[in-house]
Amino acid sequence: MAARRGLYSSGVLKSRALPVPVVCFGNISAGGTGKTSTVIAAAQELARSGRHPAVLLRGYKRSSSAPKLVILARGRSFSLADTGDEALMIYRTLEKEGVPVLVSPDRYASGTAAVKQLGADIILMDDGFQHFSLKRDADIVLVNATAPFYADHMLPYGDLRESPRGLARARAVVISHCEHASQEQIDALAAEIKKINPAAEIIESMHAPEFFLDPATAHPVDLNLLKGRPAAAISAIGDPESFEGALRKMKIDLKQIWRYPDHHAFTPAELATAQEARGGLPLITTYKDFARFPSGWQGILKGGVLILSVKIVFLCDGWRKLSAVMAEAAGRRA
């Protein structure tokens, strides 16, 4: 990683710039930081303020036959195989704000399409901190408060994608999942970040449950529905402990838990196993996981399923700091 970064810094490998500001949301670890939820929150706020953001993703675990560039926008056709689960989940969440999502390993090509075809005036790059071929105006890195980088190791012995020294490139660092950490742990993590990057804005955030969604009816369900009751949970995400911990904080008694590898595509047989084993208990999952349920899931999961909808909450003046970083990035192009 250091050698690759050096090749870009020296100009041996070239970075290209888009005509609009680019803000990158990334991490130095292999998932579980809440990055995608933060991108969604930023896109929503930008759209509501009158900007025209677009989100760029690489499209992890897409079909090998998927087109190089897939545009998720009003009036466009696409499939889960072409987009990948994260892109589809982000688009569905941002659909009412009219924020397009573009999927391609070539972020310059997808960014160019966002600007020229869709009128985007600011680009949010999801998971691109190590993607040096596209220039960005601000890098925002997320770190999990419950999995401090200074106690971790590089892949494959740990979850770090690169050395913690990479945080020196960040304009801001968001400490996520603060709801699962003590203030002492959060302060210790902030101190380690400042050792590497004294100039970085440090922003604290937490994930807060909003409601359950019944996908069969598309209707929201009150969070108190399962309070004090037994239930089952199924997920295939980078940080299943946070998902399950949120359910337990809601006083839900998890009697059955199924965990699969991140981005796992569920099969009918796996859902049938869960259906048989849950013994009539409510089955709870995430938006990201539900996007990977096979067609015909309703015929398998008799008794239904609930999706936990969560939102990012920025603590103290966190949103003001994040907004200032994005405004500063946009100001460089003014």
Q: Any overview of this molecule?
A:
With 334 residues, the chain is of the alpha/beta class. The protein folds into 2 domains: 12-207 and 313-331, P-loop containing nucleotide triphosphate hydrolases (Rossmann fold), CATH 3.40.50.300; 209-311, Rossmann fold (3-Layer(aba) Sandwich), CATH 3.40.50. It has 11 helices and 13 strands. The chain has helices at residues 2-9, 35-48, 80-83, 85-94, 107-118, 183-196, 240-249, 268-277, 287-290, 297-300, 318-331, and strands spanning 22-26, 53-57, 70-72, 101-103, 122-126, 138-144, 172-176, 201-214, 219-221, 230-235, 253-259, 283-286, 306-314. Strands 1, 2, 3, 4, 5, 6, 7, 8, 9, 10, 11, 12 and 13 form a 13-stranded mixed beta sheet that branches. A hairpin with a 4-residue loop joins strand 8 (201-214) and strand 9. The chain is globular, with a radius of gyration of 20 Å. The mean pLDDT is 92.
Q: Please state the structural category.
A: alpha/beta
CATH architecture of the largest domain: 3-Layer(aba) Sandwich
CATH topology of the largest domain: Rossmann fold
Shape: globular
Q: Quote the distance from N terminus to C terminus.
A: 33 Å
